[in-house]
Amino acid sequence: MSDRASTPSAGPGAGRRFVWLLVLALLVAGLATLAAHALHLAISAITRLAFYGKWSHEAVSPTGHGLGAWVILVPALGGGLIALLARFGSRGVVGHGIPEVMQQVLANRSRISPRVAVLKPLASAISIGTGAPYGAEGPVIALGGATGSLLGQALTMTTNERKILLAAGAAAAMTAIFGSPVAATLLAVELLLFEFRARSAVPVALAAALAQALRMAAGEGGAVFPLAASAAEDIAPLTALGCFAGIGAVAGVLAVAAGGAVHRTEDFFARLPINPLWCPVLGGLVVGVAGWCEPRVLGAGYEVITSLLGGELGAGTVALVCGLKLVIWIVSLGSGTSGGTLAPMLVVGGGVGALAATAAQGAGLAGVSPGLAALAGMTAFFAGGSRALFASVVLAVEITHQAGALWPAATAAAVAVGVAHLLSPRSLMTEAVERRGVRVPADFAADVFEQVRVGEVMEKNPVVIDEAMRVGELADRIGAGDAGLSRSQAYLVKNADGRLAGIITRGDLLAAVERGDAGETLDAVMTRDPVRAFPDETLHEALERMHAHDVGRLPVVERAAPHALVGYLGRAAILSARQMRWREHHEPEPGWWKKRGR
Question: Same domain for 211 and 233?
Answer without folding.
Answer: no
